[in-house]
Design brief:
The structure is a single chain. The protein has 1 helix and 6 strands, in the order βββαβββ. The protein has one helix at 67-78; strands spanning 18-20, 41-51, 56-62, 87-91, 94-95, 111-117. The radius of gyration is 15 Å and the shape is globular. Residues 1-10 have a biased composition (Basic and acidic residues). Residues 1-36 are annotated as: Disordered. InterPro entries: Ubiquitin-like_dom, Ubiquitin-like_domsf, Ubiquitin_dom. It comes from Kipferlia bialata.
């Protein structure tokens, strides 16, 4: 974040359609190799996480992951003030439950989820 508390305008970066398992420090589970060898592939989607101040961050997550895993990804990047237990996500006017998945809420590639950080 720059001075004045605002971020530069978001510019999409090209990303691969899949994350290949086998390394990295990701909060979501890395799949086992596919039967018969080779790398298992996890389809990724791009999500935009927007704060109430209008700041937007981009995340690339498995399309069928839980809300909690997306929150962990946000916490890993944003720091302790955005810990899972201190955040709430809102999408299409409803609060998202941690144990449910993105498809449960019909969240798709390039959708925007609002992030609320609780002041407890």
């Amino acid at each position: 974040m720059g001075s004045g508390g605002s971020r530069e305008k978001f510019t999409a970066q090209p990303e691969p359609d899949y994350y290949r398992g086998g390394g990295g420090n990701h909060p979501y589970p890395v799949p086992e190799p596919a039967p018969g060898g080779g790398n298992a592939r996890v389809p990724l989607i791009t999500l935009f996480i927007k704060t109430l101040l209008g700041e937007v961050s981009t995340y690339h997550v498995p399309r069928d992951c839980t809300i909690e895993l997306v929150k962990k990804e946000v916490a890993a990047r944003e720091g302790p003030h955005a810990a899972v237990h201190r955040t709430k996500f809102v999408y299409a006017g409803q609060t998202l439950e941690d144990e449910r998945t993105l498809p449960d809420y019909n969240i798709k590639h390039e959708d925007t989820i609002f992030l609320i950080i609780l002041l407890r």
